[in-house]
Structure formats: C-alpha cells, structure tokens
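Tokens in:
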C-alpha cells in the first residue's frame, strides 16, 4: 500500500495539522518519518519533522526546504508557528509540502511511523473506535450517523432506497445507487462517496444505506473506512430489527383494539374506552372512515408511516392502523362536518391516495360522517364497501366516496340482475366500436359528477377531448346529460358493463 502525505494527514492525530505551502505535492509518497538533524542528508520520500521550537523568521527553515527538495523528500512538519510569506512562497516554488502542527510534533511522528510500519492498524483502530463509541446498547440511526461523522470527520447519513436522507445529511446523496445489496464506492471530483447496505432478514433489497462522503485529506482513508462503515451499518440493522419487533407488537395491539371497536353493539365498555384512550384514539366526535387496500402484497407494518405521512401532507390528521391486506383509518372532528367540508375532505383524501399510488397499487374507499363509537364502526364499514368497489374501477382512479354514490349505490345490487344487464348493454350499444373509448369516458364523467377537469385527470387526456367525447355520447344516445334521470340510468348501465366485464 502506497502512503502519501495526504494519507498521513488523514490520521486522527494529524487532524490539527495545517498545510501552509506545497499543497500541489500532497500526493508525494512517504517512506520514512524522521526528526530533523542539522547537516544530515534527506532521503527520498522522507517526511522531516522539526521537533524543537523554531521562530517564523529563522533562515534555517528555508535551508531545510531546499535540502528536502534536493533529496526528494516528502515534506516538512513544523511545530506551532506561522512561517513567513517568503518561506511559504519558497515551499510552493520547490513543490515541498510545508505543514504546521498545533500539537507536539513528537506525538505526530509516532502516529505517522505506526502508519508506515503497519498500515492496517489505522483501519483496525478506526473499527475499534467506532465500536467503542457505539457501545453495547441499541442506538437510533441519528446517533449512529453522528458517531460515524465524528470518527471520520466527514458528512454521513442514513438514506432510504430512493437516496433521501432518513438521518444526517449528505451533499452527494444522489450518488448512492439503489440496487444490489453490496457496498458501493463512487469517485467524486475531490473525494469518495462510500455506501454500505443495511439489510433486514428475508429482504432481497436493502432497507436503507449508510453513507459517508470523504473529501480532501479525509478521502485518503477511503480504503480503511469500509469496515468501520460495516460496523455502523450493523448497529443500524440491530436498531431497525428491534424497532420492527416493537412496531409489530403495537400493530397487533392496534388491530385487536380496532376489531373490538368494529364488533361493538352499543356503547363501549369502560375497559374498551380505556384501551382506546391509551392508544390516543378519540371515540367521541364525528368520524369519517377510510379504507386503503393494495392489489399486490405490501409490508403494511413498515409502510404504515408512509400512509400517515401522505394523509398529513394533505392536511388530514387521521388514525392509521394495519388491518388485513391494507390499512383502516379515520378522521375525527368535534362537530358534524358540513357538506362543503365533506367534499373538501374527499378532495384531500383523493390527492393523498394519488401520492400513495406513486409507490403502492392502492385503492381507497371513504365513508360518510357518523358520530360516536358506533358511528365510527358504521363509517369504516361504508369505507370498506366503497374500497371493495373502488378496487374494480380504474376509471375512477380506484377512489370512491360513499357520498358520491348517492342513489346509484342504493341500486347497485339491482344492476346485477339478469333483467337489467341486457337492457344496459342495449342502452350503451351505440357507443361501442366508436373511436375515443366512449363507454369508459362516459363512466368516468358520471363518476366525477359531470366534472370535465376531474374526468380529464382520471383518463389522462385534455378536458377539451372529454368535452368533445361527451358531446358525441349525447348525440349517439340522443340523451341530455343535464337530466337527472337520464344520468342515473346511464350511470347504472356503465356500472353493469364494468361489473360484467363488458366494455
């Protein structure tokens, strides 16, 4: 292993050493570190250490720089003093690194000699230092990152699988590539980015990455830092596993409490009220139930906070608990919400669901407002029914609010009868085979309560395109969609077509 001046400067004991000249030659190889002796020839690769106090204007400093340059030395380390500008200019001109220590030079000399004698000892010392700093107790990621940052004197962070910081800060976080669970090394313009995966059992992909950015002289320790990074990643892994056990225990408790609430037949007993209070759940007030399901398997315990964050980002404070293959949640108000407040809440919930759909194949059902503990169970039951229907309706964005269903929801069972299905097919027949996917456009338009903008957002087309298609629908069917009865009949016909897979 070649050791240069920059590598020596990266030693923790040398952290206070300042480079005052010859910075362009810090890559010069260091072969030996010796105290300065007057009249002795300087060997190639020798780092000369001046151990006795010296004044900044001493002419012998300039003479020493020339001797080091003539002998091919690696540089000069001075005790704490500020060399004259002329001396610094000479060091730059001769390409001799001129270093100034803020501690006893003899201590630095010993540390440098140990590095030259056994380079692996520095890496072992770093691993031991990180291990001792972490200690035996479980530490949260913030503390692990802080230990790594202090030991390497460099920015460090815990990143999620998208490169976003979970703890700490890292200017070059985007350089971490999510993928194979192997340590990564990325060369930067003036340094190195190291990343180590944090793996959990039975997970083929890393849950997160522990990364450190080594720049300047710190980059010289890039070869010895990975084992220390692995030790820190192990500490994060242990904390995540313990935290996961706690989350799963809490999830089971919440799920059991929710099950008891949903089975209520009357006022909740005192024990159930106390358990709900311990969990921070309000049973009083007016509740709007939510049901969020996923089409593909998902880790509901691990991703529960993601669901809660998506709701909070839209200004919706809700209790979220794992339930079955998804999440059951509810939003509580002190007073009965107005119709306008309910519509505004539904709009925010739709936005939250769209955000979740970036990473989850999620569908959402929303119940109506109901008061009290029994009302909570009723609203959740409505939301569960709505979510079941929403899962089969991509034209609505897989989102359904019970209040938006109106009479159509009450008549939904009737639309499944043998009598209505042929009539529905006949009613929609003129639209089949026409360009523009008119049946789906009509269904989305009616689901969106005749909103061109909402229909365009669901279908991913321009609102003018929707307007033109709806005009053609009215002409082909000879109907006026401003009439309530005609809208209802067509809405039911579109539902029947969707349920039967016809169109």
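Residues out:
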């Amino acid at each position: 292993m070649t050791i240069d001046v920059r590598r020596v400067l990266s030693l923790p004991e040398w952290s206070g050493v300042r480079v005052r000249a010859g910075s362009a030659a810090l890559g010069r190889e260091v072969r030996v570190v010796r105290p300065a002796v007057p009249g002795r020839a300087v060997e190639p690769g020798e780092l000369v250490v001046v151990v006795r106090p010296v004044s900044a204007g001493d002419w012998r400093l300039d003479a020493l720089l020339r001797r080091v340059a003539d002998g091919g030395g690696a540089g000069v380390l001075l005790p704490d003093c500020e060399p004259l500008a002329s001396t610094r200019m000479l060091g730059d001109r001769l390409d001799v690194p001129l270093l100034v220590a803020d501690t006893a030079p003899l201590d630095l000399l010993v540390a440098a000699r140990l590095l030259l004698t056994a380079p692996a000892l520095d890496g072992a010392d770093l691993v031991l230092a990180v291990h001792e700093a972490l200690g035996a107790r479980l530490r949260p990621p913030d503390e692990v990152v802080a230990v790594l940052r202090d030991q390497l004197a460099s920015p460090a962070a815990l990143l999620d699988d998208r490169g976003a910081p979970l703890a700490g800060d890292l200017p070059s976080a985007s350089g971490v590539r999510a993928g194979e669970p192997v340590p990564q090394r990325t060369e930067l313009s003036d340094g190195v980015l190291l990343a180590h995966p944090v793996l959990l059992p039975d997970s083929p992909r890393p849950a997160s990455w522990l990364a450190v950015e080594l720049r300047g002289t710190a980059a010289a320790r890039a070869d010895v830092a990975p084992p220390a990074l692995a030790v820190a990643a192990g500490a994060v892994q242990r904390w995540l596993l313990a935290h996961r056990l706690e989350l799963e225990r809490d999830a089971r408790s919440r799920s059991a409490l929710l099950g008891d609430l949903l089975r209520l037949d009357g006022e909740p007993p005192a024990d159930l009220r106390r358990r709900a209070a311990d969990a921070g759940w309000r049973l009083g007030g007016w509740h709007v139930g939510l049901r969020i399901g996923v089409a593909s398997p998902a880790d509901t315990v691990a991703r529960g906070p993601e669901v809660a964050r998506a709701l909070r980002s839209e200004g919706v404070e809700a209790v979220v608990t794992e339930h079955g293959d998804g999440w059951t949640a509810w939003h509580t108000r002190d007073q009965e919400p107005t119709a306008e407040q309910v519509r505004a809440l539904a709009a925010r919930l739709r936005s939250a669901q769209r955000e979740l759909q970036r990473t989850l194949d999620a569908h959402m059902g929303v119940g109506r407002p109901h008061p009290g503990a029994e009302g909570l169970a009723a609203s959740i039951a409505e939301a569960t029914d709505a979510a079941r229907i929403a899962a089969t309706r991509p034209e609505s964005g897989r989102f359904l609010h019970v209040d938006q269903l109106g009479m159509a929801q009450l008549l939904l069972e009737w639309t499944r009868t043998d009598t209505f299905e042929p009539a529905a097919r006949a009613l929609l027949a003129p639209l089949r085979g026409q360009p523009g996917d008119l049946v789906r456009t009509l269904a989305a338009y009616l689901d969106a309560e005749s909103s061109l903008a909402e229909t365009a957002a669901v279908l991913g087309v321009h609102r003018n395109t929707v307007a033109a298609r709806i005009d053609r629908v009215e002409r082909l069917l000879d109907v006026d969609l401003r009439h309530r009865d005609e809208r209802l009949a067509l809405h039911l016909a579109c539902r029947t077509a969707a349920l039967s897979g016809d169109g």
